[in-house]
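Q: What would this complex look like in 3D?
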Amino acid sequence: MNRRLLLRIAIVAAIAIGAFEPFYFRIFFTDRTRLRAALTTLPYTKAPGLRTFLIEVEQRTPPGSRVAIAAPWMEWDRGYEYVFARSLYPLAGREVLALTRPGALDRAEYVAAWHAAPVLPGFTEIWRGRDGVLLRRTQ
Amino acid sequence: MSRRAWAILGVAALELLGYTLFATAAPMWEFDFLTNWGLKAKVFALHGGVDWQFLQGAWYRNTHPDYPPLVPLMFDAFALVRGGWDDRWIGLFYPAIALAATLFTFRIARREAGDVRAAILAVILCPLFASPWPGLAEAWLIAFAFIGLLLIRDDHVLPGALFLGLGAMTKNEGLTFIVAAACALLVARRAKDIVRLWPAVVLALPWLILRAVHHIYGDLTSGSVIARVGEHLAHPALMLDAFRGAPIGKPLLWIGIIAGAFLAARAQRFLFTAAGVQLAFYVGAYFATPHDVEWHVRWSWERLVSHVTPLLAYAVLIELLPLIRREALPAPPP
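A: Here is my prediction, written as structure tokens for the whole assembly.
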């Protein structure tokens, strides 16, 4: 076999091996129930309980309402963005407000507080779960 | 079609079955689905149409209100057919796209390389169409651009342009694929065909007009683009550092493509030019980014390069596989 032919075969092999995705074959032998559970919670890994908390909030707030998000960390770059960004999808249909932005609390009809229980004038607690509380504006 | 070709394609079928299990394993889990593609689709589904108020007020950087709406609207079409929002089974779109692109690869390669080598090529490219990011727009754009550019290369310019237009309705990067195709036609000495790309422009235009009318802008074009480009050009070390740590996805694949480019670039100059121009646009966009360059490169580069890898891999393989076959055959008796 000449050197040119070997080089061509090596290039084709590199592309074929490099493009190959073994997981799409391995998945037949993977525990898919565990995979499903892992993928479902994957986006919320750093905020345990946030996903189920947001599902509860979604059920208790009407579409079109304005829901502010509170978290133990209220600095945008130090954890707040993580919680806020992941609140958008479960609460779709509502206006999700970031309390780091000026005037957000004034506009909020609800405050969903994950792993926090803030006492806010003009708001009353309407639901408490394992991972947070939901407040509604009363004044 | 030969039995060997069928058997080889069977490997792709098995891989696509595995990919189907993956893409439908759970409700879509990617961050960009939750904050961009899926979010917009769910908002539109609940609103009963495109919610312009939502798009105008979407300030969070990852929501990208300016992105074209084809993918969210396809998710909504699925919701309409199913009778409600469903964020798990929309995953079925992804193996369907990969299947279509794999079959297209086989069909187009068959004319150039014969049954068996076309089947080998399709099996090699299949995982590149089976995007590891279900729920995102990557798989759609990869397939539209790949099919569109190969059709244009083979002188089916109008249908190819339609696919490029669909790509432009999928992601902003689809717009630059149209420019890349025009540049590639120029390099391939087919300048008069550039005007025949008009269907791509016609498909791309409505969204560009609508988003301007509704004052919806993207992050890349916000503020002073020229000042940002100037600043990044003045500090090239920052850009180099960002790329030094950037994931490229499949290193061995890239080694093969780069080595193969030396052998195939001349014959496949249309595809190499299109992919090269597209990559140049991506690098250029980093010079205009309003975000931290290192952050931007780290979280987007691997996905961006995946847009052109099937094109480049095809360009190399379609040249080398027939040559290997020819050289490996025993010489005819004197």
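A: To summarize the key features: The radius of gyration of chain A is 24 Å. The CA atoms of residues 97 and 104 of chain A lie 6 Å apart.
Q: Very helpful, thank you.
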